[in-house]
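U., I forgot to send this yesterday:
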Amino acid sequence: MGQYWKYIKAHIIQFIFGPLLMLTEVAGEIVLPTIMASMIDDGIMNNNIPYVISRMAIMFGCICVMIIGGLGGHYLSVKASVSFSADIRKDLFKKVQSFSFKNIDKFSTGSLVTRLTNDITQIQNITRMFLIMAMRSPGMLIGGIIMALRLNASLATILIVVIPLLGASIGALMYTAYPRFGMVQQKLDSLNSGIQENITNVRVIKSFVREKFEINKFHTANEDLKDTMLRAMKIVICTMPVMTLAMNITMIVTVWRGGNLVVGGGMEVGDLTAFTTYIVQILMSLMMVSMLFLQSARAAASSRRIKEVLNTVVDLTDDASKKKELKVERGEVEFKNVCFKYYESRKDNILNHINFKINPGETIGIIGATGSGKTSLVQMIPRLYDVTEGEVLVDGVNVKDYSIRNLRDGVGMVLQKNVLFSGTIEDNLKWGDENAAHEEIEEAADSAQADSFIKSFTDGYNTELGQGGVNVSGGQKQRLCIARALLKKPKILILDDSTSAVDTATEAKIRHAFATTLKDTTKIIIAQRISSIVDADKILVLSEGNVTGFGTHDELMKTNDEYRDIYQSQVDEEVTA
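Result:
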């Protein structure tokens, strides 16, 4: 609980007074049987009606106090648990937002969603149960034992046998339950990941008529979760019969022995009634404790998963930055002997000893076969990943010396996978500059060749986009993402195959806009089509993580066989078409 102390401290009043108010219920539970015993023995047995009425009035007053205290205790406990879990969720989400790509790669999306929702709900539930039962269950247990001993110590010896047996049973159940509930959360991760992937890519599924396959795949994951959940819940299912059996056996023995005492004159009828009530309270408190322990087994598994995220060391931070106030001003980029691999345990590098320099305002094309390392290369510039060896310089300064915010403010990037968010088109474009005027937004959209199709919509820039921009085409999505990056007015603009879904005529207009409106911006364009980069100031050719050529189109046609082969194959395809 040490890691959660700061969340408890923020709501310490509710955490303290919630359980304390529950003590009013405990006090009532302990006092009421004694009052009832005296009402039976001194009132009903002696036909003393005024005494019976007075005892009833006292009992009614106790019940009123119990109701007020119980309501207050429950309210404060619920408020504390909900606020506590909300604060954890906020910090957990904040931590995920601080993750680098490398950190995110360690967790699946479905797993992070489960941790932010279901796992935190488990923590919330156990916190609420604990606050409600923290004073109530032990109070009833201790108070019941004291009152039972006070009424008849010899009869109370039955508890010496019952309580240890039930305690051992609860311990055995806990030992068995913990690993099973941990497995439940893992299966839930798997199911959530499958659901998210299915819903996100529903159009692809329908286009390939794979609905039946996906339904079977979901059925398998769902059945797996069901079977795992049932295996874990068997522990919970077994708890109630065991506790009920113990309670009934104890009650039978108590009534039998107590009845003999009453007949023999060693015990009053009222005292026996009170004694059996205390026995029920003791066993009920043990039952509540057992349910609390079982719930804590699942919550412990969830807590471990939450702490895995909270305790993850973010590998990209500003801690070592030497020039945090520095901003990208010119857009010069240089790679010096850069090597990179995604995992330290991997034997081979993705990039091998990369060296090149881009002057401010230049347009650089990058081309190479799939898997040659093009995307990995450009991700080094805004520090989406850090280099394994060597260094990347922007304006002559190592990217690690900038603050991450200032570095990324100076770099606009349109990723290979175009992502839009729920909201209007204008809301999405304002990701580039949240304070941009509408005229600036239209100008950026016009440069990206998006203004005309946006205005063709009934609501224009106020058109609502579905999640991920599902209600626009691939080419329209690419142009919106380009416009969003342009609105940022970056010193370095990286386009990672960002016009692949755009026709060549529109792509030519976009390149022309770049040449005029972004003449002072360094432009790095990854492309599969040579026509997209043939007019670039320089072209970088990558092959299996190595630079095999760097120069103009004409220079590479003379000196680089790989570039010449790519160019010739694409020209031949165009002629054939």
